[in-house]
Amino acid sequence: MKTTLDLSDETRARLKSATAKRRLAGYSPLIGEALERYVRAREERASKTVELLALAGALRDEADDMAPRVAEIRTRQWRDS
């Protein structure tokens, strides 16, 4: 696929320098790599968000079960002090 990109002079200079360091003939491989990394990172972030949202409230039941024991320990420590 071909497309046109509007880049700032600074970005174009950095891109040109990066392609020269890699001895690439054009910008396409570097831009393709950057886009692939960007898309992959967005997908991974979305996946992690879904995983984290699935955990919402998962510890609440365990915390509720432990609350009386924590209160008992705190009360005992307060009395022993």
Description of the molecule:
By secondary structure, this protein is mostly helical. The chain is built from three helices and no strands.
Q: What class do helices, strands and sheet pairing give?
A: mainly alpha
Rg from C-alpha positions?
27 Å
Average pLDDT:
89
**Count of β-strands:** 0
How many independent structural domains? 1
Uncertain spans, ≥5 residues at pLDDT below 50?
none
Number of helices: 3
Which structural traits does this protein have?
3 helices; 81 residues; elongated; mainly alpha; single chain
In short:
This protein has 81 residues and is mainly alpha-helical. It is built from three helices and no strands.
Q: What secondary-structure arrangement, pairings included, does this model have?
A:
Layout (H helix, E strand, L loop, with lengths): L8 H13 L6 H28 L2 H23 L1
